[in-house]
Amino acid sequence: MKKILFPIDFSETSFNAFRYALHFAKKINAEIVTLHVYEYPAIVYSEYGNFLIDNYNVNEWTEFENYKDEVPKLRAIAENEQLEHIKISHVLKQGNVQDSILDLVKKERADYIVMGTKGATGLKEIFLGTVTQSIMNNAKIPVFAVPSNCEYQPIKRILFLTKYEKSHFPILKIIFKLAKVFEAHLDVLQVSTSFDNTHKTIYSEWEKSFPKSEVSFFTLTSNDYEGTINEFMKLHKTNLVTMPIHHLGFFEKIFSYSLSRKLTFHSNIPILGLYERKETETKQVSKNQKTMHS
């Protein structure tokens, strides 16, 4: 059975994201492990810290009465969504939020992370300098980021943002399998200031690799990356945005363009970041697999 790690701070944002975690767990036949992290004495991340300061008496950490009160709310949400059969377990840890999440990913051998995000007004703000982005870069497993204003709806249209580079093809195959699980159509889109022949060749190769009825490929030329994606998503009624993550490089290039305005197209749409293996990592994985079978 697959496993979803769900970091939670018991805010409305995290309770809202839990609905996505439940429905995703149903689709992929997974169990959910929730993780609540408290930091003492140093509070680092405000979205977790504010909640702890407001709700816990720091002199009574051993009792965790609030924790005991909050956990049953998750079961209530599951019952309300008619998904009470989903297996849910809970972990409470003291320490650094990011380190605790990454440690538990390894310990539980989690397949996915689902977590809520809040306080952002554009893609740049979500991914640059946030806990979510840091987790995406370091967890090396797919991470669902669910914005606070996102109301759950069935995923029927998935958008994959790419640069039409060969290294993105393995990620595309993963997303295609996920799209089939959701019975969703997959749109593959590149937005750039120019479109060269190399991209055109890769575009053509990819297009031949998937059924046209299930996957559509697009290339758009624009200096307004975020705005163009916004219009595309409105037109195609996108339910989920996916993209490769590789140590900020992709996002730094995306947002090096001059953006005329901040947009909030993601305010009701979850984003799935998939770790893009570096060439050295890919070679090491291949070497390990050969060793295991020798």
TrEMBL record:
CDD domains: USP-like. Belongs to the universal stress protein A family. InterPro entries: Universal_stress_UspA (IPR006015), UspA (IPR006016). Residues 1-147 form the UspA domain. It comes from Flavobacterium luteum. This is Universal stress protein.
